[in-house]
Structures are given as structure tokens and as C-alpha cells.
Write a structure and sequence with these properties.
- By secondary structure, this protein is an alpha/beta fold.
- It has a single domain, classed as 3-Layer(aba) Sandwich (Rossmann fold), CATH 3.40.50.450.
- Helix content is 47%, strand content 20%.
- It has a seven-stranded parallel β-sheet, with helices on both faces.
- Strand 1, helix 1 and strand 2 form a beta-alpha-beta unit.
- Helix 1 runs parallel beside helix 2.
Length: 183
């Protein structure tokens, strides 16, 4: 195996069936390219979908879940490795340490927070790992517009903005992310 890719995604499945289909497609691509999954450790929502699909395809799955969310998100007991931590800070640090790249699928505020933390870490030089948005059915169009607005308002450098990969299809996204991974 080439390593693990962190996927940030919802603990809910959303209201569009394409979100679930895309999570399964991401799992297929990760297994096809010999990568394991690091994710939030839940068995519900898109988190559960991608973990279950990875396992069904024979992939490796590491979940990292804080004790406070262990029962709330219904921790996934059937994955390759489940790491329980005290805080969200520990969760994100472990996920970052174990991952070669970061991908955000659709999700809520937790998904955005996790993505923006590792994206910020890249900006300040804590890592050089690719960060990406999978813009499923235009889900991240408003966020991409906001990021462009931060550049236009001179709060974000254009080169840093361009470092956040954003693609509409799984194939395009993973091709670019994998090309930027330091193997």
C-alpha cells in the first residue's frame, strides 16, 4: 500500500443520492490506486458509507474518533483500526500525521473545519500535502466563490488559493491529488 488519504465528510448523508454514490466511488478509486482511508471513525452518514465501501473492496480503514463522539456518531467497530482520542485536536493531528493528502467530500461545519485546519497548516508550512475539495454536484461552488472573494479582497494570495485542488469528478480530483503526493 502507498499510504493513507484522509477524507473529511459528513456524519449525515445529505439530501442528494449523488453524495452517497460519490463516497462509494472515492472508496473504489482509493483501493484501485492502492491507498487506505483515514477518516473520522463513524459508521453513520457519508463517513459510514466510505468506510463500509472501502472494507467491502478489501481496503484498509483507520478511524480516529474523540471519546465524546464515540457513541454520538456511533463509532465504526468493524474497521481495520479505530483510534479513540480525548479531543478533536488530537483527532486532527493523528489524521494529518497518518495521511499523505486530504480530501473534503460534502459535509457540514466539522468537515469544513477539518479541511480548513489542514489547509492553513499547509499555508504556514507545517506540511506539503495536497488539500482538495470534491465539488460533488456543485456542493462547494459557494465556498470556491468565497475563496475567490478572499483573493480579490487581498486576504489570500492567489498562489495559495490555487493550491487547494477543486474538481467536480472523482477521477479528475484523485488524478491531481495523487500526482502531488510525495510517495
Amino acid at each position: 500500500m502507498k499510504g493513507y488519504i484522509a477524507v473529511f465528510c459528513g456524519s449525515r448523508s445529505g439530501n442528494n443520492p449523488v453524495f452517497v454514490d460519490t463516497a462509494k466511488e472515492v472508496a473504489q478509486h482509493l483501493v484501485d490506486h492502492d491507498f487506505g482511508l483515514v477518516y473520522g471513525g463513524g459508521k453513520v452518514g457519508l463517513m459510514g458509507v466510505i468506510a463500509d465501501e472501502m472494507l467491502a473492496l478489501g481496503g484498509e480503514v483507520i478511524g480516529v474518533i474523540p471519546e465524546k463522539l464515540f457513541t454520538k456518531e456511533v463509532a465504526h467497530a468493524g474497521i481495520t483500526e479505530l483510534i479513540t482520542v480525548q479531543t478533536m485536536h488530537e483527532r486532527k493531528a493523528i489524521m494529518a500525521d497518518k495521511s499523505k493528502a486530504f480530501i473534503a467530500l460534502p459535509g457540514g461545519i466539522g468537515t469544513l473545519e477539518e479541511l480548513f485546519e489542514v489547509f492553513t497548516w499547509a499555508q504556514i508550512g507545517y506540511h506539503k500535502k495536497p488539500c482538495a475539495l470534491l465539488n460533488v454536484d456543485g456542493f462547494y461552488d459557494p465556498l470556491n466563490e468565497m475563496l475567490d472573494h478572499t483573493v480579490a479582497s487581498d486576504f489570500l494570495a492567489q498562489d495559495y488559493r490555487e493550491s487547494l485542488i477543486s474538481k467536480n469528478t472523482v477521477g479528475e480530483l484523485l488524478k491531481e491529488v495523487i500526482s502531488k503526493i510525495d510517495l
